[in-house]
Amino acid sequence: MSEHDAVDRLTCVLCPVGCELEVGTGPAGGVQVTGNQCDKGVPFAEEEVLRPKRNLATSVPIRGTASRMVSVRLSGPVPREMIFPILTEIAKLRPEAPVRRGQVLIADVLGTGVDVIATRTVLAKADS
Amino acid sequence: MSGPRETCDVAVIGGGPAGLAAALGARRAGAGKVLLLERDRTLGGILNQCVHDGFGLFLYKETISGPEYAERLTEDVLREPIRVATGTMVLDLSPDRVLRVNSREGYRLVEAGAVVLAMGCRERTREMIEIPGTRPAGIFTAGSAQNLVNLQNLRIGNEAVILGSGDIGLIMARRLVFEGVAVKGVFEILPWANGLERNIRQCLMDLRIPLELRSTVVEIRGRDRVESVVVAKVDESLAPVAGTESVIPCDTLLLSVGLIPENELAKKAGVVLSPLTGGAVVDETLMTSIPGIFSCGNVLHIHDVADWASFEGFAAGERAARFAAGERPAGPTIRVSAGPNVRYALPQLVTRGKPGVEWSFRVKRPVRDVAVEVKGLTSGKVYARRKFARLLPSELQKIKVRVAVEEDLEVGCP
Ligand SMILES: Cc1cc2nc3c(=O)[nH]c(=O)nc-3n(C[C@H](O)[C@H](O)[C@H](O)COP(=O)(O)OP(=O)(O)OC[C@H]3O[C@@H](n4cnc5c(N)ncnc54)[C@H](O)[C@@H]3O)c2cc1C
Fold first, then answer.
1. What pLDDT, on the 0 to 100 scale, is given for residue B2?
2. Which atom of ligand 1 is nearest to the CA of B40?
3. Which one of A24, B142, B235, B251 has the fewest CB atoms closer than 10 angstroms to its CB?
4. In the predicted model, is pLDDT for residue B141 greater than 50?
5. pLDDT per residue as tens digits for the range B250-277
6. A58, B178: Cβ pair inside 8 Å?
7. Which residues line ligand 1 (CB under 6 A)?
8. Can you give the residue ranges of every domain in chain B?
């Protein structure tokens, strides 16, 4: 995503100070960060503007139990542009109970190095 | 009152992050018989449907999803000899701490040494009722939409508009896009967004969903199903400005216009409620106006972060255990009110001469570079002062007074 030639504003979330950062285009295609009160603000803004990473959570239907759905997320953030391709992979999942919290449902999804994991335990029987 | 009777030291009503923590807090403070009552079939409260991540940073020092947070806290509870009654609705509470309870086993009475209220909140719908137009299908509160999509796998529509910029609405905007629903925009009547900046960025900007401030839905159109909504800009007094209307075709309208503490039981027991929080008036031990009845979590005041609801729960549970063991309030209280630009400060009462009290507060309007003060109303003395780079109405904040205080106080941004 390279629509960020204009100035972007974001609040640094690394500490409670919450500096308001302004990100503009810098020399050699880089970015220019202003408004940061410490050194950490610059890499924070660079990553958020140039290579934003996101986690992703959804839920998928589960078989073999009374619960209809099991919730899932990624074990860590991935580059933002991978979100929709990964959603397509997750949509193919049809796990069968029992599923344990933390269980890997897709390992190394689309070669990103992160796993799709279950975020709740669903027992095979009717109750809870 | 008749029916089977049961006794316990501490009864906790509600098994969300606040109630689970309260049950644990009561055990840790030595309560023998702790009873946790939850009307739903599972523990965890609203967290079960909050599948997104962003929970647990303070309690577990990592960010996890709502269901994981709920399950971890539930496991801690199940390791203790706490009697957990799910599928059990508390119907009534008396000032002498007798609960009327309905469950699969039938109706019974519970006599408790102390009670912790942890019933959470419900979503506001008043704004919906005030919107003129027809009453077609397709109008949901954001939380009920979250439940239908995340837990029941239902598709709620094809094209959605979201009224209100609360966090649940923002989270649902992203969730609906993930489900293939076109989200046409989020409309907020105030000049600022109500949700966390992180959610504005990740749930709206990432997905190019427009956020329109100072605007609202003025009409809902459609016969059987929503067909469109009319949105308009509002003026300073929040009244729609004629001539600014535009029609947005959509089949779904989500309302994310705030939460209200669910205090029906508290009212039945005669607990004094605050018009500012919608929850009980409490002292620094989280005890309400009825001795032995404590309150924590969203039923006390709305929390944006589940961890804080749990921390309050631990404290309320501990105090309830001590009350059940015979400890009584230390003496008269002073009053604490909300000063300039502060919506509320909690606790509203503090035992006179008690040092080290911490307040939770929210501001009315966003402000930058301000100092918040806790000031004596008689002497004008400033007992605590804390600087903030910025304060937002959506963020619950804290301020602590180290010394003992003998006069009524005000928490404000002078
Ligand atoms: C939709 C939504 C999304 C959120 N997203 C986030 C987020 O991303 N990150 C974050 O940190 N926080 C988030 N929050 C806030 C956080 O979830 C809440 O602060 C927290 O859940 C409050 O916990 P609680 O225990 O007070 O209430 P709840 O979780 O609502 O639990 C209350 C429980 O009491 C039970 N109950 C009520 N009345 C009775 C009765 N009479 N008898 C028996 N049981 C009863 C209910 O069934 C429920 O289980 C969100 C909140 C909502 C509503």
1. 59
2. 47
3. B235
4. yes
5. 999 999 988 999 999 999 999 999 999 9
6. yes
7. B 13-19, 37-40, 45-47, 50, 52, 54-55, 89-90, 118-120, 143, 146, 167-168, 262, 265, 297-299, 303, 305-306, 309
8. 1-122+260-328, 125-257, 330-414
What pLDDT is stored for residue B129 in this prediction? 65
Domain ranges in chain A? 6-51, 57-127
CATH 3.50.50.60 is held by the domain B125-257:
yes
What's the topology of domain B1-122+260-328?
A: FAD/NAD(P)-binding domain (3.50.50)
Q: Are A101 and B153 inside 8 Å of each other by CB? A: no
Cis omega (within 30 of 0) for bond into B347: yes
Q: What is the pLDDT of residue B126?
A: 64
Q: What is the pLDDT of residues A10-68, one digit of tens each?
A: 888 777 677 888 888 877 777 889 888 888 889 888 888 888 999 999 999 999 887 78
- Give the SS3 label for residue A56: coil
Q: Point out the least confidently predicted range of A38-42, B77-81, B221-225, B317-321.
A: A38-42
Does the beta-carbon distance from A13 to B48 stay under 8 Å? no
Average pLDDT of every residue of chain B = 94
Nearest Cα to Cα of residue A116 among A81, A79, A91: A91
Kindly list the residues from chain B whose CB atom is less than 8 angstroms away from the CB atom of residue A19. 389
Q: Which CATH architecture has domain A57-127?
A: Roll (3.10)
Asked whether the predicted pLDDT for residue A4 surpasses 50, the reply is: no
Residue B306's alpha-carbon distances to A76, B127, B316, in angstroms, are: 21, 26, 15
Predicted local distance difference test score (pLDDT) of residue B394: 86
More confident residue, A5 or B141: B141
CA dist B188 → B163, B212, B240 (Å): 6, 6, 12
